[in-house]
Amino acid sequence: MESSSYSPNEYNLLPDHPGVYKYFNATGELIYVGKAKSLKKRVSSYFNKNTGVNLKTRRMVREIERIEITLVNSEFDALLLENNLIKKSQPKYNILLRDDKTYPYLLVTQEPFPRIFQTRKMIPGRGTYYGPFASVKAMNNVLDLIRSLFTIRTCKLDLSPYKIQEGKYKVCLEYHIGNCQGPCVGLQKESDYLKDLDQAKHILKGNLGLPKSYFKQEMQKFAENLEFEKAQRAKEKLDLLEKYQAKSLVANPTIHNHDICTLVADEKYAYVNYMRVKNGALIVSKNVELKKKLDETDEELLLTALIRLQDQFQSDAEEVLVPFEIENPIEGLNLVNPKIGDKKKLIELSLKNARFYKQEKALLQGLNKDKKDRVIRQLQEDLSLPEIPDHIECFDNSNIQGTSPVASMVCFLNGKPAVKEYRHFHIKTVKGANDFASMKEIVGRRYKRLLEEGKSLPKLIVIDGGKGQLSAAVEALQELGIYGKMPIIGIAKRLEEIYFPGDMYPIHIDKKSESLRLLQRIRDEAHRFAITFHRKVRSKNAFGTQLTAIPGIGESTANKLLKHFKSVKKIKEASEQEIEEVIGKSRAKDLLEWMEKNKGSN
């Protein structure tokens, strides 16, 4: 393969050969990968078409700054290379296949007396991996079947010949209950063990015919030698194998090695079902979701998913059954759209799975959409509110022994913080530590302003505090004439008691309730917001006091400095000219001299 680079204006110079093209933007980011039977015709179509092109494609074309191409021998090779590049780079304009799970494998180890166990990590040289399995349940069914039929060891002992000869090991419980024949103490030859293992490998590959023939021969051999007990055990294993095959049989056993891939799509997504059938038995069934990026056709979506899934499940299928005729068949990919018979029934079965997956996704999206309402609906029920509280406002005070009194209001919409609606309050009419009067002031100020601006009132007001703070807030609402138009509650911290105005006794919501957790979160957010603001105000006030102690700097000048520079750090970083512009040359000189003298003390 060879790669070349072109500018968007040079698309006519591209060769008329199969390959993969890559689009890069101005920052060098790979934004799209595509494959083509003819690179020149395919890439030119992006730049020549003026009609019938959607907005997303036009936007992508405007971003293209560089085109790279890679020539390959066939369109099928281009399809495989495209798939690998998309998996590796995840370009933003390529179809997104939503499947980031890791799948389990069964590993046959490369060691004396090999073991079979499950793993999710593929480490080269460790052994042979079979899978991946679309579900853990399917994998465990296969593993249980193998362990029922053959005595494959499960221990982690190093069964090198010299260690067995040294007599380092003793038989364990697995030997005594018949699950192992004791290779660790030389009771089983490795050649006999490997015969069983070879049959187990056939089952892992989905070829059940060979193990069935093996047990039939074993049964006949034992019967001829009058070893009827051994013949009966072989028969039981044959029956077990046939029962397993019957459970997984979905089609005529003459359907030897086929993949089935179908999809159903809507405007934004496609839902794909992929199945693998061997000897009539379904060995893989997988559903995936594709997110459309550039208004791709059903054919493009199907091929994208098919190649990815065949690669993931290491398919060696002779034929792939698809639900519609492929307009542009790809040499090397045997795609068939059956019209009648068992193969048509497999297509219908796959489509049934794809439709069901689509319905499941739609239901899940609906549940997720309603999830935000679930908690506030529960809150409505727990508090017996007339409306769903999709707009909640919570108030809290903060002061230290009456100094720098401030308050906060936080707003939650649909159960989530609406940070832009948060408000700070400086307490203006209350002197000293009076939480009740402070609460009345801020609640009154908040809703007086909302009424003046004609804005909507909340569906629930929460007061951080008990009866006293709640009564103060109620007084503010009564003076505004809006008490009773919206529910108001108080929440006391210690026992998480909920108070309603006029009720002597509080109510208690279940401690594990989502609605109580929402109230706690709102209350804690209001408290955090108030405390943060209070610390900031105290810091400013402390510095303001420090400024007024400077000869020539009074309260008015200190306020000007704080209003303009916001913090002590910014005042210290300001130039002499900047300070002069705010407070004049004389005062600026006094301030700078003082800061110079006290430079080491801060």
Could you describe the 3D structure shown?
Belongs to the UvrC family. It comes from Algoriphagus limi. The protein is elongated, with a radius of gyration of 38 Å. Helix 8 packs antiparallel against helix 9, helix 14 crosses helix 15 and helix 17 packs across helix 18. The mean pLDDT is 83. The protein has 18 helices and 20 strands. The protein has 602 residues and is of the alpha+beta class.
Per-chain topology:
Layout lengths: L2 E4 L12 E6 L5 E7 L2 H10 L6 H9 L2 E6 L3 H15 L6 E3 L6 E5 L6 E4 L7 E4 L5 H14 L11 H5 L7 H4 L13 H15 L4 H16 L3 H21 L8 E9 L3 E10 L2 E11 L6 H15 L6 E3 L13 E2 L4 H43 L7 E10 L2 E11 L2 E2 L5 E4 L8 H19 L6 E5 L2 H14 L7 E5 L4 E3 L14 H35 L6 H11 L2 H6 L2 H8 L1 H13 L5
Helix pairs in contact: 8-9, 11-14, 12-13, 14-15, 17-18
Structural class: alpha+beta
* Mean pLDDT value: 83
Approximate strand percentage: 15-25%
- Number-wise, the strands total 20
State Rg: 38 Å
The outline comes out as elongated
Helix content: 40-55%
The largest pleated sheet is described as:
7 strands, mixed
Weakly predicted, low-confidence segments: none
Terminal-residue CA separation: 68 Å
- Helices, by number, come to 18
Task: Based on the model shown, name its key terms.
602 residues, alpha+beta, 7-stranded mixed sheet, 45% helix
Question: Summed up, what is this model?
Answer:
The chain is an alpha+beta fold and 602 residues long.
